[in-house]
User: Fold these one by one.
Assistant:
Number 1:
Amino acid sequence: MTKIAIIGPGAVGGTIAHDLLPTFTHLTLVGRQSQTITYTESTAPNTETIINVTAIDEFDDPVDILFIAVKIPQLDAVIQKLPNFIHEDTIIILAQNGTGQLSRIPHKHVFQAVVYISGQKRQQHITHFRDHQLILQHSPSTQQLQHLFSNTQLDITLVEE
């Protein structure tokens, strides 16, 4: 059983959750407060998925894989909460716009993703437009992720640089 958490219930985090939930039932989408969000694909606007969001202050169960999909100004608050989310072997993926944040997270398995997910969030509704891809640097840990997620909608692409 692989435990996964995604911090950030916006367009990127919500899409990652939507892509993984059918396969990984031990997945938690985490935000500032507990709520539900509605997810739709722009190509199928009459098909909605309801995704539960757990408040970050209510989460204290270390996970095996942690996606951080918050804006860079919110990263400091998330870093303070990391001890509640990780154990020694947790794989952390920064799924944000921008780079240069890896050094802020003192953990041996942390990777920056180039994010190709297009969507928008308005209030509690996410509309996904296109792409489900994260590009990661090739390593044994990211190769493990690529294999683990191979039967999901999330496309993990590995590159050498």
Note: Residues 68 and 75 are 8 Å apart (CA to CA).
Number 2:
Amino acid sequence: MFQLHAISNRLRRLPCPSFELPTADFSHVLDFCGQLESLKVVPARGFGDFSTKEEFLQHLINPIATSNILPSTLTFDLVPFTSVTSLELIGIVPQNIENCEAVKQNVVNLCVKNTRANNTMQILMPDSIHNEVSIIHENQSWKKVTYADLGNNDLWTLDESMALLPYVEDLRLNNNMIRTIKNLKTLYNLKHLDLGGNLIENLKGWHVELGNVESLNLSSNKIKSLEGLSRLKSLKNIDLSWNCIEDIA
């Protein structure tokens, strides 16, 4: 019903249960899942065949083949995947992700794309949707994530949940609906930030949020003035293509 790509450096094939067992035993499956290091979940076949995000999202609300199963209603429990270091969730509705805390301790590379999430808490704390939790605690952090790709969603605000990525170095927020940035000042390790394809117009005060950023992509926004960039002392590379810049000073 959905594509699930799982890679383990230690396991080359799915182990089979002993034929001597009188009944079906799924312990071998759980053991396999517990040793996986890379996990990619896509609730649709032929993901690469969709040319646009809208086309892919439309597919998620249509029944699978001749069944009445909707890909957007499939739930995903992450409890078994305790060893995953690379996690990709493509087109997963945030409220369909369960027990996200199980993978937070080891994930280094995080990718959550093509969702309808409009704030970062829905992505970084999906369990809060079920538990109605709004308070951010340090023990909820993605403690090892250095690369986070949250592009191609519907994000319009960066809320307090950004503090849950304390060690992120490369952050991708491209192709969202972001107009301004906030809650990034605690990301002391952030070096590379991609904000291409958003709705950003004003850069005033950005030095407060992006004190250590070295590479910044602001292409395909609505920027008219570069006022504010001069105070980004750590900046080495910047992409300002496809904007509406009126004054280059």
Note: Residues 27-35 form the longest helix (9 residues).
Number 3:
Amino acid sequence: LVRRFGDFTAVASTSFDVHRGEIFGLLGPNGAGKTTTFRMLCGLLPASSGHLEVAGLNLRTARAQARARIGYVSQKFALYANLSVRENLEFFGGAYGLGGTQLRERVADAIKRFDLQADARSGDLPAGYKQRLAMAVGLLHAPEILFLDEPTSGIDPLARRAFWRTITELARQGVTIIVTTHFMEEAEYCDRI
């Protein structure tokens, strides 16, 4: 996998595979190309060259089908700050194709599971709760693969520990987790790095 921006090579001949239910870590300092790799694997950025396959689907020929099977939690809060927790969940649930009773049940389950206040304005949440909401949105459509881009950056140690408990439980349930981090102690939670 290669990604160039003009003369600059952001990702240089990276190759790896990840097994179902595995927690796979991309470890490296800021600027190492972790987020660029993620964006390619999520179908958000085209690769300059190489073969991209996610959930058994080629991203060059089946991008929409692959994206429907993955969840993504970005490094920075990327939800709508002016919407409530419930409104964000409902909006993104609809974008994932959920509706009616299924959407209402999934939103209620997410609010309960991540201990969120449904009517709280998302932009006013503390950093740890913003990440909980982002994780809830990423899991709403029950993806097979969850991409977590430095998910615990900027949150307190207790929230970080709780976040990793959730990640470990998801992997036990068969969800494949691919996580970027520059924290060595977090890399120890991964099955492979």
Note: The longest strand covers residues 176-181.
